[in-house]
Write a structure and sequence with these properties.
This protein has about 450 residues and is an alpha+beta fold. The chain contains 8 helices and 23 strands. The protein has 5 domains: about 55 residues, no CATH class; about 90 residues, conserved putative lor/sdh protein from methanococcus maripaludis s2 fold; about 60 residues, OB fold (Dihydrolipoamide Acetyltransferase, E2P) (Beta Barrel); about 120 residues, Orthogonal Bundle (Helix Hairpins), CATH 1.10.287.470; about 80 residues, Beta Barrel (Elongation Factor Tu (Ef-tu), domain 3), CATH 2.40.30. Strand 14 and strand 15 form a beta hairpin. This is YbhG-like alpha-helical hairpin domain-containing protein.
Length: about 450
């Protein structure tokens, strides 16, 4: 004992210490200071712990995970917005061409130009047609003059000339008869030969024939032109009129006009080309009031009525449209019924959004589906068994107090998705409380505490 006390005295009061003795001395002083601090703070720490234990719940209850919940409400149907995709189509699109072959001498418009109805777009060379027209007009004038002559009848001078010719032929016939009688007497006396009498007899017959022809000519002039001849001449005039009308049609077809107002989408020919009948020169598109063609399921199309107004989204803008017609046939490729909507004239706020044929259009329709189920937020869903979806319903915990609940997995079937919520059906009951968020932190059978 004496040796120990001496060592302690030597350790604390010796002025010259070794390095090891110095370290030992420092540790002892630190432990002594720590003991003094603990002795001073121990009563206050004990009092604080007792107060905390009295004012807080039990340790098991403090470990319960708080969850946000909501109460299920049973529904017999739900309304869903279905978007059906279609296309903007021009009411009229035409590849314009001539109906006859010819040389293209003028193009009045170019691509992108706006045209009005009956505006001249192109012209063919018509020199040959003009020459033929003048020839037919001259022949028609000649036929008309002949017809007028027939309808007026022969002139008085012509009739008098024919009558004079009859008198002349009658006088000649009388002279020839007299000469024949003389030749007959001479033949009977044997003065002349029989041949001279035969010649006189032939002369009588010749003048008789001439008199008959002159008389018929006079009778024809006195009777006037026959009705059949006038009708034949009238038919000839009508033939010339028909040929001139056909030529006028060819001249009219030498000028290509716009059948409707619109814009020239494409130009397919140049000046100087020889184009054939039916060869496209321009593609003209009517862009004043375009249409929207949308394919709809038959049951959806049956619920629509022509004339009803709908909203159509084209690009960033929403346009008002009216159902013009619904086709009665089913498209064999898409198995849909085509609905045609006419876009209304754009307002001041919509004029900046140009509608061009070929754009994609979406028709939004509200449908009511008669199916019982529940609306759930997307955050309430979790992966279930065999790839199905599930949610956590809260049921009372038999081993805990009234505020302690237990999670129970319920499989559900998603019927419709609407932005941040889904309409489901499954093993759920109206009035049950379901976990709203934080399902990734939960498992089936876990004890939780519902937030108020």
């Amino acid at each position: 004992m004496r040796i120990v006390s001496w060592n302690w005295r030597k350790l604390f009061f010796n002025q010259k210490l070794t390095k090891r003795q110095f370290l030992t001395k420092s540790v002892i002083f630190a432990l002594f200071a720590l003991l003094l601090v603990l002795a001073w703070r121990l009563p206050s720490l004990r009092a604080k712990a007792e107060s905390d234990v009295a004012g807080q719940p039990s340790q098991a209850q403090a470990r319960l995970l708080p969850v946000e919940t909501f109460t299920l409400e049973a529904l017999t149907a739900y309304r869903a917005t279905r978007a059906y995709t279609g296309q903007v189509v021009a009411r009229q699109t035409s590849d314009l061409s001539f109906e006859r072959t010819g040389k293209l001498v003028e193009l009045a418009v170019d691509e992108g130009d706006r045209v009005t109805r009956d505006m001249i777009l192109a012209t063919l060379d018509t020199q040959a047609l003009r020459a033929t027209q003048r020839q037919l007009q001259a022949q028609r004038a000649q036929a008309l003059a002949r017809l007028a002559e027939m309808q007026s009848g022969p002139r008085h001078e012509t009739i008098e000339a024919a009558r004079a010719q009859v008198h002349e032929q009658r006088a000649e016939l009388a002279l020839a008869g007299l000469q024949r009688r003389r030749r007959q007497q001479l033949v009977d006396k044997g003065v002349i030969a029989r041949e001279e009498f035969d010649a006189a007899d032939a002369g009588v017959k010749t003048w008789q024939a001439r008199l008959d022809a002159a008389q018929r000519r006079l009778d024809e002039l006195l009777a006037g032109t026959r009705r059949e001849q006038i009708q034949a001449q009238e038919a000839l005039v009508a033939q010339f009129d028909a040929r001139l009308a056909a030529l006028a049609i060819d001249l009219d077809k030498s000028v290509l006009k716009a059948p409707f107002a619109g814009k020239v989408a494409r130009r397919l020919a140049d000046t100087g080309m020889v184009v054939s009948a039916g060869q496209a020169l321009f593609r003209l598109v009517e862009d004043t009031r375009p249409e929207v063609h949308v394919g709809l399921p038959p049951h959806v199309a049956a619920a629509l009525t022509p004339g009803s107004r709908q909203s159509v989204r084209i690009g960033p803008a929403v346009h008002q449209a009216q159902i013009a017609r619904i086709l009665p046939e089913l498209d064999p490729a898409t198995r849909t019924v085509l609905a045609v909507l006419t876009l209304s004239l754009p307002g001041e706020s919509e004029r900046q959004h140009v509608v061009v044929p070929g754009q994609v259009a979406r028709l939004d329709l509200q449908e009511t589906i008669d199916t019982p189920g529940f609306w759930l937020p997307l955050t309430a869903l979790t992966k279930g068994e065999r790839g199905l979806w599930a949610c956590y319903a809260l049921v009372p915990d038999a081993e805990g107090d009234a505020s302690t609940l237990r999670t129970e997995s319920r499989l559900v079937e998603i019927l419709h998705t609407d932005n941040s919520r889904v309409f489901v059906r499954g093993l759920l009951q109206a009035g049950e409380r379901v976990v709203k968020t934080g399902t990734h932190r939960l498992v089936a059978g876990q004890r939780v505490q519902a937030l108020p």
